[in-house]
Amino acid sequence: MNRQAIFNKVAAHLFVQGQQSRIDSGYCCYQHPDNPLLRCAIGCLMPSDGPLGFIGNVNRLAICHPGFLKGLGANTSYDLQFLRNLQRVHDSHPPRSWAQSLCKFAHKYNLSLPRIFKP
């Protein structure tokens, strides 16, 4: 997947989901343990039956997992930073501000806005 495809998939996922994937302790998680469809920005890119399973964001090693990066076609630290910044949209902003945050993200990385942003 190239960056545009990753961005499009994550943006569509976040818009449809409309809520953060958080566990009771308040931490964001890649995939919610009680609702596997509830996922964060990076979690929606991970296979639900993959080797990573449920990992809270306290352990950020999952993004660095070689199999995950290879599956996305991402290998460099620049790609890793791209994914981490995309993750911050989910983790650090309430859902009501995701559209604005995603627009800023797209501008920063010179990406086109997906159809969901257009009336």
Describe this structure in words.
- The protein has helices spanning 3-17, 61-64, 66-72, 77-92, 98-108.
- Helix 4 (77-92) packs antiparallel against helix 5.
- The protein is mainly α and 119 residues long.
- It has one domain.
- It contains 5 helices and no strands.
- It is 45% helix and 0% strand.
Low-confidence stretches: 51-61
The number of strands is 0
Secondary-structure-derived class: mainly alpha
One letter per element, helices H and strands E, the order comes to HHHHH
Mean pLDDT across all residues, rounded? 80
Query: What is the share of helical residues?
Result: 40-55%
How many separate structural domains?
1
Roughly what fraction of the amino acids lie in strands?
A: under 5%
Question: What is the distance, rounded to the nearest whole angstrom, between the alpha carbons of the first and last residues?
Answer: 26 Å
Question: What's a quick, concise take on this entry?
Answer:
45% of the residues lie in helices and 0% in strands.
What order do the helices and strands come in, and which of them pair?
Elements (H helix, E strand, L loop, with lengths): L2 H15 L43 H4 L1 H7 L4 H16 L5 H11 L11
Helix pairs in contact: 1-4, 1-5, 4-5
List keywords for this structure.
mainly alpha, 45% helix, 5 helices, 119 residues
